[in-house]
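Moderator note: this is an archived Q&A kept for reference. The question asked for a predicted structure of one protein chain; the sequence and the answer are reproduced below.
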Amino acid sequence: MATIVLLITTGLLIGYGIWELYRHRQKLAKIPIRVHVNGTRGKSSVARLIAAGLRASGIRTCCKTTGTLPRMIVPSGTEYPVFRPSRANVIEQVRIVDMAVEFEAEALVIECMALRPNLQWLCENKLIRATHGVITNAREDHLDVMGPTEKDVAWALAGMVPVKTKLFTAERDHLDVFEHASKDRQTQLIAISEEDVEQITPLDLAGFMYVEHAENVALALRVCADLGVDRATALRGMWEAKPDPGAMTAHEMDFFGRKIHFVNGFAANDPESTERIWKMALERYPEVERRVMVVNCRQDRPDRSQQLGKSVTNWPPADYYVLIGTGTYIFAKTATEAGIDPLKLVFAEDLPAPDIFETLLEYSGKTSLIMGIANIGGVGLDVVRYFANRSTQKTFK
C-alpha cells in the first residue's frame, strides 16, 4: 500500500512539474525578445545599457539585474527592489518572467544568476530560452565554484549559450570556448573586436554620469543594432539610464582643508579589472600626497581575497591598505607573503562606515586618492554612500 501511495505521489509531482514548465513556456512565448546576459564583469551594466537602448527606441522593455542590489526595471524606467524571502535562488527568474508578462513587455533583458555550471544550463534552457545571449567576458572570479582556472570559468559560462540563435560577447582571450559551445548549439557567435571598441569615442563615453567601459558600450550597441535600434537612439537612452549602484564613480570631498578623491572600484572584484581601475585612478590623480586602497573583504569569499592579495604586489603601490569587512586576515596573510610591507596594512574589520571614514582620515594627507576594491556587498556600499553624500562634486565625467 505504501508503495502505491509513493508511486501516485511521485506521478502527481512529475505531472505538476510538467504542467508548470508548459505554463512557463507559454509565458516566455509572450515576450518576443529575451536577452540573457552573463559574464564575470560588467553584466549588470550591460543589461542596463541594452534595456535603456531598447526603451529609447519605443520597445516596451523590462530588465532585471542582480548586481550590487537586485532590481526590476519596468518599461517606464522606474526601478523596484526584487523581494527575496530568503537567499538568492535561480527559480526567482520564473517570477521575473511573470512580472514582465504582466507589464506586457515586448522585451526582457535579464541577468543570469547562476554560478554552478549545471545551473548555467538550467537558467538558459529551462527558464529564459534567450533570443539573444550575451557573455561579457570570462575572468578569474568565483574560482571555488567555477574554477580552478580562468579557462574553467569560461567553460562554466558557456553553459548558458542559447540554442539556434545568437550569442554576443566581448571576450577575446577565451573566445575558442564560446566558439565551441556555439557550434555545438548551432548558434551564431558575434564577437566584439578591438576595432568595435575603438569606435566608441571619448564623446560617446562623456555622456555617462559615471565611468562606463568602452567594451560594455560596444557590446550593448551591437545587441541593440541587431534588434533594429539605431546607434544614436540607443546611445541617447544609455546616457539617460540610471547606473547600477556599484558602477564606478568618483567623488571629490573637501574635508576641513583636506582634499579627498574617492573612487568606487568595489564592484571590480577580479584582479584584472581592479588593476585596470587602480591605474586609471592613479593617472587621473597623479599629484596627490597619499594613495590609500580600501579592501572590503568577505569571509564567504576567501578565494577573492587570496587572488587580490597575490596580485596587488604587481600593481603600482599604495601608501596604505585599509582592510574592512570580514575575514581580513586572509587578504593580509596572502599579501604579506607576496611581498606587501605589513606596516602598510591597516585593520578596520567590522567597523561601520563612519568609523571607516575616521580611520581613512588618519592615513590621508592634504590631498589623497582613496579607492575601494574587492566587494561592493556589505559595508562597501555603505562606504560609497558615505562619500557620495558628502562629496562636493562627481568626477570622471
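Archived answer notes: The CA atoms of residues 269 and 374 lie 5 Å apart.
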